[in-house]
Amino acid sequence: MRFRDACILAFCRLGVAGLAPKAPGTWGTALACLLAPFLFLPLGMGGRALVLLLLFVLGALAATRAEKLLGRKDPGEVVIDELVGVWLVLLPFAEPGFWLVAAAFVFFRIFDIAKPWPVRASENWLPDGFGVMLDDVL
To answer: What is the pLDDT of residues 94-126, one digit of tens each?
Structure first.
C-alpha cells in the first residue's frame, strides 16, 4: 500500500478508532468527544464552521478513496464522518461542559444507529464519500 493511501485510511479511521472490532462508530464518536475540548471547542464560531467545512470536504474525498481501497461502500471503519457529525452537534454551544459533551455523544449515537428518514436515504443523495459524510451531518 502506498504511503498516501495509508495516510488516507488513518485519517478516515481517526487513527485506530475505526479499527475497533466492535462498534467502530461508537469508538470514533468517543474519540471525537475527547478531542473536541482541545481541538474544536476553543475556536470561535467562525473557526469552528471553517474546520467543519474543511473536514467535511477532506473527509468526503478521503472516504471516497477508502471505499475504493477497501472494496466496500460506506465501510464501518471510516469514522471521520462521526467526528464531523458530533462536532456539528457541539457547534452552537459557546462553552459546553462535560455533561453537554456527554449528552451530544449519547444522542448522536442514538440517531446515527437509528438513522431515521431522511437520514438513511441521504446516503444515496450524493456520490461516494460525500454520501458517507452527509448521513452523519444530517
So the answer is: 888 999 999 999 999 999 898 788 777 766 677
Helix, strand and coil percent figures for the chain, each rounded to 5: 70, 0, 30
Contact 62, 11 (CB under 8 A): yes
Amino acid identity, position 29: T
Can you tell me the distance from the alpha carbon of 6 to that of 69, in angstroms, rounded to the nearest whole number? 10
Residue with cell 446515527: 112
Per residue in 23-80, pLDDT tens? 999 999 999 999 999 999 999 999 999 999 999 999 999 999 999 999 999 899 999 9
Largest CA distance in the chain: 42
C-alpha cell at 102: 456527554
* CB contact at 8 A, 30 and 83: no
Angle between helices 80-90 and 24-39 in degrees, nearest 10: 50
Q: Which amino acid is at 58?
A: L
Do 84 and 33 form a contact (C-beta atoms < 8 A)? no
Q: Which three cell numbers stand for residue 73?
A: 461502500
